[in-house]
C-alpha cells in the first residue's frame, strides 16, 4: 500500500510539462472556473457561518463561567466542520461537472503515452451527456460513502489524544475519494461503472497518493484551487494508464499460457 501511495505521489512529476506539450490548457478553462467559483463559496461560507454555528453549539453551555471561552472553541469547531464538509462537497461537485472536459484530456494523454493501449483496447464511446451522468453517479456514490466515514471521524477528532489518529485518517479518506474521481476520467473509457469501482478498490494506494497532493493543493490560496484539477487529473491519467497497461499485459500472458497448455505436444 505504502509503495503504491508513493507511486501515486510521483505521478505528479512533469505533469505541468505534459499539459504544455499536449496543449491541454484550453480543456481546463471551464473546470478551473468552476473550481474557483465553488472554492470561493466555501471560504465565504466558513467566514460567514462559523460564528453562527459556533453560537448555536455554544447554546448547550448553560453556565455563565467559561461561556466566552466555550463560545470561541465552538466557533472554531463550527468553522472546521464547515471546512471539512465544504471540501467534501467541493471535490465531488467540481469533479462531476468537469467530467465532459476531463475525459478528452485523459484520452489525449493516453494516445500520447500509450498508443498501443489506445489502439488495441476497445473503448467505450460515450457522449458529453453520458460522461456527465457517469461523473454524477460516481461522485454521488463517493460523496455518500465519504460523509458516512468522515462525520464520525470529525467528531472523534475533537477528543484530545484521539485526534492524533482520527485527523490524519480524515485527511486520507478525503484524499482517497479525490484520487478515485481523478482516476475515473480514464476508467470511464475502459470500464463500466461497477468495474471501475472494483478497479479503484484494488488500487487504493494509487488513489490515495494522487489525492494527497490534490488535498494539499487546496490549502494554497487561489492558485491551488485554480491548478488543482489540471495537475491532479494529468497525474491520475498517467497512473491509471500505467495500471491499465500492466493489466493488459497480464491478460495477454494469461491467454498465452492458456493457449500453450491446450496445445498438444508432438510425440518425439
From TrEMBL:
Membrane-crossing residue ranges in chain numbering: 24-49, 69-90, 143-162, 208-233
Carries keyword DNA repair?
Answer: no
Question: From which domain of life does this come?
Answer: Bacteria
A biological process (GO) of this protein is: sulfate assimilation
Q: Which UniProt keywords apply?
A: Amino-acid biosynthesis, Cell inner membrane, Cell membrane, Membrane, Sulfate transport, Transmembrane, Transmembrane helix, Transport
InterPro entries in the cross-refs? CysZ-like, CysZ/EI24
Record's keyword annotation contains Membrane: yes
Q: Give the principal location in a single coarse category.
A: membrane
Q: Which GO terms describe its molecular function?
A: high-affinity sulfate:proton symporter activity
Localization terms from the record? Membrane
Lipid bilayer topology:
Multi-pass membrane protein
Q: Which GO terms describe its cellular component?
A: plasma membrane
Recorded hits in Pfam families, A to Z, give: EI24
Q: What is this protein called?
A: CysZ protein
Amino acid at each position: 500500500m505504502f509503495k503504491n501511495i508513493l507511486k501515486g505521489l510521483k505521478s505528479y512529476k512533469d505533469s505541468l510539462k505534459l499539459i504544455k506539450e499536449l496543449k491541454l490548457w484550453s480543456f481546463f478553462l471551464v473546470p478551473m472556473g468552476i473550481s474557483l467559483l465553488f472554492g470561493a463559496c466555501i471560504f465565504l461560507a466558513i467566514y460567514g457561518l462559523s460564528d453562527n454555528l459556533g453560537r448555536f453549539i455554544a447554546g448547550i453551555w448553560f453556565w455563565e463561567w467559561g461561556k466566552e471561552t466555550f463560545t470561541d472553541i465552538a466557533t472554531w469547531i463550527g468553522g472546521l466542520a464547515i471546512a471539512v464538509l465544504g471540501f467534501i462537497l467541493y471535490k465531488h461537485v467540481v469533479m462531476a461537472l468537469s467530467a465532459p472536459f476531463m475525459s478528452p484530456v485523459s484520452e489525449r494523454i493516453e494516445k500520447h503515452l500509450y498508443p498501443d493501449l489506445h489502439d488495441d483496447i476497445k473503448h467505450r464511446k460515450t457522449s458529453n451527456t453520458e460522461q456527465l451522468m457517469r461523473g454524477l453517479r460516481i461522485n454521488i456514490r463517493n460523496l455518500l460513502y465519504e460523509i458516512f466515514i468522515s462525520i464520525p471521524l470529525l467528531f472523534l477528532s475533537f477528543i484530545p489524544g484521539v485526534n492524533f489518529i482520527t485527523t490524519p485518517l480524515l485527511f486520507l479518506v478525503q484524499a482517497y475519494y479525490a484520487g478515485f474521481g481523478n482516476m475515473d476520467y480514464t476508467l470511464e473509457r475502459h470500464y463500466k461503472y461497477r468495474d471501475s469501482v472494483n478497479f479503484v478498490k484494488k488500487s487504493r494506494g494509487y488513489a490515495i497518493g494522487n489525492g494527497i497532493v490534490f488535498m494539499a493543493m487546496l490549502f494554497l490560496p487561489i492558485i491551488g484551487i485554480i491548478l488543482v484539477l489540471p495537475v491532479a487529473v494529468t497525474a491520475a491519467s498517467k497512473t491509471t494508464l500505467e495500471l491499465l497497461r500492466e493489466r493488459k499485459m497480464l491478460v495477454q500472458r494469461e491467454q498465452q499460457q492458456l493457449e500453450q497448455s491446450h496445445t498438444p505436444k508432438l510425440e518425439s
